[in-house]
Amino acid sequence: MNEHDLDRARILMMKVLDHCNDAAELAEFERLLAQDRALQAEFLEMSHTCDHLEAFRTRTLNDLSTHAVERSSERVGVVTAALVGFGSLLMVGVMLWLLFTAPDLHIALKIGLGAVTAGALLAFVKIVIDRLRAAPHDAYTEVDR
Amino acid sequence: MAEREHVYTLLEQSRQRATMAALGILGDRDAALDAVQEATIRTLKASDAYDAAAPFYPWFYRILKNHCLDLFRRRRTRAEVRDPEAVLDHVAASDQTDASLLAAERDRAVQRAMTGLGEAHREILQLRHWQDLSYEEIAAVLEVPVGTVMSRLYRARRALQDALNADPRWTR
């Protein structure tokens, strides 16, 4: 095959590999392909590689889509934790203030309820902090449910 | 001049290929998703400058690519973000059947070969195979005729194939 035909065959090969050839171009390519064993071998290996690249794209897009959903869900989790934490602090603060300013409540009850509420709040905050610290090291997060 | 809503619709349609483009440059899923988000905002802000008669993706791709390259330079961690294994490990990790392990090994071989290519070869292969652009779209992005796209694509694929054939871990 001369250099001109070879260049033409390579252009047609690209079109066939990318599925953007018409019937006449396919027929022309098949005619040129039949004349050259080296071209046949090149077409086969490039077809194989292109198929693999196509499959890789599909796998990567699926992975990206799953990852985007997980990432969004993690961010919602952080916002939720922040809202719950802020709301809890506000409620407990107001409750303690109401408790300590209540005129007809016994002092022992004020101290007891205050201590229990503060203890529960501290325990809750500790659990949330521990969970957030441990999350990056969670095992088996890639295992499909 | 283009309506902002129209630009937004075009951005939505370009999201997948843009994410693949960003992943190809940055090599990191989170960084790629963030970069696309940032480029989307920049594009929307600049939507008045967009000429609706021109193809949209090449314009958006230029904004995205510039942003990704800025990030890339700022991070100064080329070795880290260009690590071919790092790009692909998460794809392989989610599925561990024999077929998928083989596919993952091939993915790594392709990625190693891509990393070793020159910038021009790598870009045209990513435009075609990662972003799934047509010849006409690639021509618009690279600002070259369609015939040049096909001949460049042949040379890039030939270079990729030679690199793969030289890799003992590349299996057919």
In short:
Chain A has 145 residues and is mostly helical. Helix content of chain A is 83%, strand content 0%. Chain A is built from four helices and no strands.
Task: Name its key features.
heterodimer; A: 145 residues; mainly alpha; 4 helices; 83% helix; 0% strand; B: 172 residues; Arc Repressor Mutant, subunit A
Overview of the molecule:
The complex is a heterodimer of chains A (145) and B (172). Chain A is mainly α and 145 residues long. Chain A has one domain. Chain A is built from 4 helices and no strands. The mean pLDDT of chain B is 85. Chain B is mostly helical and 172 residues long. Chains A and B meet through helix 1 and helix 3 of A and helix 1, helix 2, helix 5, helix 6 and helix 7 of B.
Layout of strands and helices, then pairs:
The complex is a heterodimer of chains A (145) and B (172).
Chain A: H1 3-17, H2 23-34, H3 37-101, H4 107-134
Chain B: H1 4-26, H2 29-45, H3 56-75, H4 78-81, H5 84-93, H6 98-116, H7 119-130, H8 135-142, H9 146-165
In the CATH hierarchy, the third-tier topology of the largest domain in chain B is known as Rna Polymerase Sigma Factor, Chain: A
Low-confidence regions of chain B: none
CATH class of the largest domain in chain B: Mainly Alpha
Q: What is the terminal-to-terminal distance of chain A?
A: 57 Å
Could you list the spans of chain A in which at least 5 consecutive residues all have pLDDT below 50? none
Structural class of chain A: mainly alpha
Characterize the overall form of chain A: rod-shaped
Question: How many DSSP H or I helices of chain B?
Answer: 9
CATH architecture of the largest domain in chain B: Orthogonal Bundle
Mean pLDDT of chain A: 85
Oligomer: heterodimer
Work out the number of β strands of chain B: 0
For the residues shown, what is the average pLDDT of chain B?
85
Largest sheet descriptor of chain A: none
Taken in chain order, the helices and strands of chain B follow as HHHHHHHHH
Task: Name the helix and strand elements of chain A from N-terminus to C-terminus, one letter apiece.
Answer: HHHH
Question: What is the total number of structural domains of chain A?
Answer: 1
How many strand segments of chain A?
0
